[in-house]
Design goal:
16% strand, 8 strands, 4-stranded parallel beta sheet, elongated, alpha/beta
């Protein structure tokens, strides 16, 4: 079920809900702010390059949290960086989404056991909507994570403020 729920044969009339129209507009242009911290950032940059062409999904990396509606946290999050991530997340406008990319940002990765400075997952400071596993995950995994985020946005209701 997409934007057009019904179509009349004798004219240019479309019937849809405001929620469906807003969801379609939001999921067709996700602008993530990249927060690359380690080797996962290299895979994130490769996803934005011409070989994988992230632009074909309407996704453009933004450098400012005020222009972004999603944040991709890729790599090892240290305790010092946790405050910066929280500050940048708070500067983003609602609705905002977070993608955690890689084992290090998901759960601390291979460094959490012996590293006193590593956060045991970015979800301890900000809410995460999509987790992408891997060390480091391939660009195809990030593309799949963005598609999962689009599905989540499609199910949301902006007017009723609940998720179907």
């Amino acid at each position: 079920m997409g934007l057009l729920d019904q179509r009349f044969e004798n004219g240019n009339v479309l019937i849809t809900s405001v929620d469906s129209l807003l969801a379609w507009a939001r999921l067709s242009s996700i602008w993530p702010m990249q927060f690359g911290l380690a080797c996962c950032a290299i895979e994130m940059m490769a996803t934005g390059a011409s070989h994988f062409d992230l632009d074909r999904f309407g996704t453009f990396f933004r450098g400012s949290p005020r222009q972004a509606d999603a944040m991709i946290v890729a790599g090892t999050v240290t305790l010092k960086m946790a405050n910066r991530i929280k500050t940048l997340y708070d500067q983003m406008a609602e609705p905002r989404y977070v993608i955690s990319m890689g084992s290090c940002s998901n759960c601390g990765g291979p460094y959490w056991e012996h590293g006193y400075h590593v956060l045991k997952g970015v979800d301890r400071v900000i809410p995460v909507d999509v987790y992408i596993p891997g060390c480091p995950p391939r660009p195809e995994a990030l593309l799949e994570g963005l598609l999962k985020l689009k599905e989540k946005i499609r199910r949301e209701h902006m007017i009723l403020k609940q998720t179907a």
